[in-house]
Design goal:
binds heme C; four-stranded antiparallel sheet
C-alpha cells in the first residue's frame, strides 16, 4: 500500500520532469495514464482490423477485402474514438485515403519513424508521446508484414489494382517492402477540461 503510493509519487515526479524536458516528440517517455490507454486502443484497433481483413481475404479474396478495409477501418476508428473520448485513427506519409493525410506534427513523427525503422528490428515497437498544453498525442508506427504486401506491395495483382483504382484514384500506398513503416496509429487526447467533444453531438 505504502510502497505503491511511493511508486505513484515517483511516477508523477518522473512524469513532471519528462514533460518539462521534452517539448519535442519523445519515444515512449511519458507515463501519463493516457499513454497506457492509447496502447490499449491501438491494440484493439489493430487486432479488430486484422481479424476483419483476414476474414474478408479468406472469404472473398483480396480484391473484395479492399472494400472491407475501406468500410471497416473508419468505422472501427470512430467506434473507439466515441468510446474513449480520444481521436483514434491511422495516418501515413504515402496515404491511400486522403482522409488519413498527416497533420504537420504527424508527418514529422512519421519521418522520424522512417529513420528509426532502418536500425530497429521490426518486432520492436516504435512509439512516440507528445504532451502539449494538456493535450496528449500518441503515435505508434505500423511496419509492413507479408500480408500487407498484397495491397501495399510493389507487385499488386491486377484485380487488386483495379479494386484500389476504383476507390482510391490517387492512391500512394503501394510499392512498400516488408518491414518498412507503412504508417502509424495515432491517438489524440484533448486537454482535460476542454468540454468540446463531451457534448456528444448535441450541437450542430
Ligand atoms: C485487402 C487489401 C489490404 C490489405 C491486405 C492491407 N491493407 Fe492497408 N489499406 C487498404 C485500404 C483499402 C486502405 C484505405 C482505408 C481507408 O479508406 O481508410 C488501407 C489503409 C491503410 C493505412 C492507413 C493510411 C492510408 O494509407 O490511408 C495503413 C496504415 C495501412 N493500410 C496499413 C496496412 C498494414 C500494416 C497491412 C498489413 C497488416 C495492411 N494495411 C493490409 C487495403 C489493404
Amino acid at each position: 500500500m505504502k510502497l505503491s503510493r511511493i511508486l505513484l509519487l515517483l511516477l508523477i515526479i518522473i512524469l513532471a520532469v519528462d514533460l518539462a524536458l521534452t517539448p519535442t516528440p519523445a519515444i515512449g517517455s511519458t507515463e501519463d495514464p493516457r499513454v497506457a490507454q492509447s496502447r490499449e486502443l491501438i491494440a484493439a484497433f489493430g487486432s479488430e482490423l486484422k481479424y476483419e481483413l483476414q476474414k474478408a481475404m479468406g472469404s472473398g479474396g483480396p480484391a473484395a477485402a479492399v472494400k472491407v478495409c475501406r468500410d471497416r477501418s473508419p468505422q472501427i476508428a470512430s467506434k473507439l474514438s466515441r468510446k474513449s473520448g480520444a481521436s483514434v485513427g491511422r495516418t501515413s506519409l504515402r496515404f491511400r485515403n486522403p482522409g488519413n493525410a498527416p497533420e504537420p506534427w504527424q508527418a514529422e513523427q512519421l519521418r522520424a519513424f522512417d529513420q528509426l525503422a532502418e536500425t530497429t528490428p521490426a518486432e520492436q515497437p516504435l512509439e512516440a508521446v507528445q504532451a502539449i498544453d494538456g493535450e496528449l498525442r500518441y503515435m505508434r508506427a505500423i511496419r509492413t508484414e507479408p500480408l500487407c504486401l498484397v495491397c501495399h506491395g510493389s507487385a499488386v495483382s491486377p484485380d487488386v489494382a483495379r479494386s484500389l483504382r476504383a476507390d482510391y484514384p490517387h492512391d500512394r500506398a503501394t510499392g512498400y517492402a516488408q518491414g518498412q513503416v507503412r504508417g502509424a496509429f495515432r491517438v489524440v487526447w484533448p486537454a482535460k477540461g476542454s468540454s468540446e467533444d463531451s457534448s456528444a453531438g448535441s450541437s450542430e
